[in-house]
Amino acid sequence: MKALEKIGDIFSRYMAFIVLAIAALSLFLPKSTDWIQTSWVNYLLMVVMFGMGLTLTPKDFALVFKRPADIITGCAAQFIIMPLLAFGLSRIFNLDPALTAGVVLVGTCPGGTASNVITYFAKGDVALSVGMTSVNTLLAPLLTPAITYLLLRTTVNVDIMSMFTTIIQVVIIPVVLGFVVNKFFGKFTEKAVKALPMVSSVAICMIIGAVVSHNSEKILTSGVIIFAVVVLHNLLGYACGFGICRLLKLSPEKTKALSIEVGMQNSGLATSLAATAFPDLSMATVPGAVFSVWHNISGAVLASIYRRWNSDSEKVTAEFDK
């Protein structure tokens, strides 16, 4: 188990580089990863979500009642800022319907488990991060299809029931099962969670490999535009989250957690939903895959910056606590 824990730590520390390597390999040598079928994406995402459920305890949900203002702020920012940014960027860059659908889906999805890991490395408020991710995930079956429909109804046909069903199957059920297992088999999960970073990382890499390799030709022909939109979406999400925290005069730890939660999306879910809800728009899966690659890189960089902020002089902390 110690060996798995060490491997998991390596995956966590170098996830950005591993994801980038898999994406590059899948893009330029698609044959290397096209054995990973796109039909596997849902099952791989279920593995990641089950792992998230194993880490949750009743204390995480108790946070909702102890610090409702923080949770509400994070949830509101998540489901307002990112969808509007996605829709606005799609219009500004004049994306075609397929890419617009993919970008908007990334924006309407909840924050992913990666935000919790990045918040931990950034020395932010991990409890708040987990609380926001949990609540956002539970709200996703209703809010993700609803917001997606409101933004895309004049552009493409949105299969709301298909999206709702997919989120229930690949997110809610695995998370709840993981939570139940953790509740009744705590001693087992205490050991098992040490291997989760490795398992989740492998699953995420396989999702990226599947989507990128099967769409490599299309990505290469329109990759610059997709990359520009994804990068702006992610960075503006961080910036808006940070700005809201400054306006509300939140502590540095809360600021880190909220800004990271807003900027990092469950892009694996977006990829899965795109394939399910828009089967005729193959390129709709691409923004989610590109976002998966990019936000791990940007998240790692942001975490290193935030870690230094935590160890800066008291003057910086005092400025944010005023």
How does this structure look, described?
With 322 residues, this protein is mainly α. 82% of the residues lie in helices and 0% in strands. It is built from 16 helices and no strands. It is globular and about 45 Å long. The termini are far apart. Residues 311-322 have low confidence and may be disordered.
The dominant shape is: globular
Strand runs, count: 0
The succession of helices and strands, N to C, reads: HHHHHHHHHHHHHHHH
Largest sheet: none
The oligomeric state of the chains shown is single chain
What class, by secondary structure content?
mainly alpha
Gyration radius over CA: 19 Å
Could you name the ranges where pLDDT drops below 50 across 5 or more consecutive residues?
311-322
* Nearest-integer average pLDDT: 83
β-sheet strand percentage: under 5%
Percent of residues in helical segments?
over 70%
Distance between the termini: 45 Å
Query: How many H/I helical runs?
Result: 16
Question: Which key phrases capture this entry?
Answer:
0% strand, disordered C terminus, 16 helices, 82% helix, 322 residues
